[in-house]
From TrEMBL:
GO molecular-function terms, A-Z: helicase activity
UniProt protein name: Helicase
Keywords linked to the UniProt accession: ATP-binding, Helicase, Hydrolase, Nucleotide-binding
Domain Helicase-associated: 129-206, 212-291, 377-447
InterPro entries registered for this protein in UniProt: Helicase_assoc
A Pfam entry, by short name: HA
Region annotated Disordered, chain positions: 68-104
């Protein structure tokens, strides 16, 4: 350091107008595990910071221009030829620091403009606590790798081989970046954060609102799931890299339907108590950009099967019509087609048009439909008919427990066996719960209740 101070003094004593340039070479001796990118936390760069502080006392404008980032913070590797030009200060274009600043400070290898600006801000212009500098350095690397600062709360900087593969310096190993980001969000909400710190983090892509962070995390997981599945009609138990996408989408659909109900009430001139929990138009558009059919008015399961059948047909295959013909992503497409044909009348007009015009599905004919399921009332009527037949033949209703009565139904086309003895016993034990009408009907055919 004394040699550097003396060199600065000799440089400043040069007479103006002599067209002479003084070059000050500052050695940086890196410690074990450090790299040239560890400018914010490495003690090796302390001499450079002090030298720039001294120069700033004589010409603040030129030194402060180093803190004006004029290029994107994304790191781009430089070829050897370009490195040579950089070292000679021959770099053209608007990238990196300003021209006067480039003339002042040159490195043997290129520096990321965002990293250089942070170095000047934090170690020369506004020296801060080491914890803040470490956090900023970790945030710069994380943002460079991920494109944002959506850091999970439990995230810590990796160490060892995992850190080397990503480019994390050893000086930041195990740094609690997630907690550091959360603390700064809390300071920001309380109004306890300086404007320059706010600006530094916002340049790195900081998201201050916790709800916005949660939305962005869910949206990123939804994009990843859709990229693999080909749609955004995830089942409820769907996950992507541990994130529960199915639950997140279910809540988003509920919020979208609430927003639609609010719009309808406003259109009808009805009062709206609160818009809390409703999905904003911007967020709905974000999901529609992934899959326009992400929130159908009918069940998601139906739309998901429709999507799979459409892709199956577009691939040149035949329409599956029987259960088990085609199973894709756990969905039995043949069973779905069969249910659509048999339940045609239960579909909306739009669903019918989609199935008929896009998939070529036709409703089932009368001969294909199974007989309608008998209701409890139908079953009771059948047993009562058997009781009447027994009473007409025997003159009483003292039916043995295992007696089976045969009843002709369907205009004489079908004979059914009714376990009349068991049914009579059940009606007698349930007498208190029977309706008065049924009690009266059974009494007319000789029912003995005691």
């Amino acid at each position: 350091m004394p040699d550097l101070v003396q060199a600065v003094g000799r440089a400043l004593r040069m007479q103006p107008g002599e067209d002479k340039v003084a070059s000050l070479v500052v050695p940086v001796l890196l410690g074990p595990g450090e790299t040239a990118d560890n400018m914010l936390t490495s003690r090796a760069f302390g001499g450079l910071a002090k030298l720039l502080e001294a120069l700033r006392a004589h010409d603040a404008r030129v030194v402060e221009q180093l803190a004006e980032q004029q290029a994107p913070s994304a790191y781009k590797p430089v070829q050897k030829a370009a490195q040579g030009q950089e070292s000679r200060g021959e770099r053209n274009g608007s990238g990196g620091p300003s021209a006067p600043a480039r003339k002042l400070l040159k490195f043997s290898t290129p520096r990321d403009p965002a990293q250089l600006a942070a170095f000047i801000n934090l170690r020369v212009l506004n020296p801060e606590h080491e914890h803040w500098r470490r956090g900023v350095e970790a945030a710069v690397i994380f943002a460079r790798e991920h494109g944002d600062l959506k850091v999970p709360f439990t995230y810590r900087v990796p160490e060892g081989e995992e850190a080397e593969g990503v480019g994390w310096p050893a000086s930041l190993a195990n740094f609690p970046l997630g907690q550091w980001i959360a603390d700064n969000r809390r300071f920001y909400v309380r109004g306890d954060m300086d404007e320059d710190r706010v600006e530094q983090l916002e340049k790195l892509g900081m998201v201050w609102d916790h709800f916005d962070v949660a939305w962005e995390e869910g949206l990123a997981a939804a994009r990843g799931w859709a990229a693999e599945a080909g749609h955004l009609l995830a089942p409820l138990d769907a996950t992507f890299q541990g994130y529960r996408v199915g639950i997140w989408l279910k809540n988003a659909r509920a919020a979208a339907r609430k927003a639609q109900e609010i719009e309808q009430r406003r259109a009808e001139g009805l009062p709206v108590e609160s818009s809390a929990g409703a999905l904003s138009e911007m967020r709905r558009e974000q999901l529609e950009d992934i899959d326009p059919s992400w929130c159908p008015t009918w069940p998601v399961e139906w739309q998901r099967c429709f999507h799979h059948v459409r892709l199956h047909l577009e691939a040149g295959h035949l329409l599956p019509i029987e259960p088990g013909d085609v199973v894709h992503q756990g969905e039995d497409l043949g069973r779905w087609v069969r249910s659509v044909r048999l339940g045609w009348d239960n579909l909306t007009t739009v669903q019918q048009w989609m199935c008929e015009q896009i998939l070529g599905i036709q409703p089932a004919g009368e001969d294909e439909k199974p007989p309608p399921r008998r209701t409890q009332a139908d079953k009771w009527a059948m047993n009562y008919k058997a009781a009447c037949r027994f009473y007409e033949r025997e003159g009483h209703l003292r039916v043995p427990r295992k007696h089976v009565e045969r009843v002709v139904v369907g205009g004489g086309r079908e004979v059914r066996e009714v376990r009349l003895g068991a049914w009579i016993g059940n009606q007698r034990s349930r007498a208190a719960r029977l309706s008065p009408e049924r009690v009266e009907q059974l009494s007319r055919v000789g029912m003995r209740w005691a």
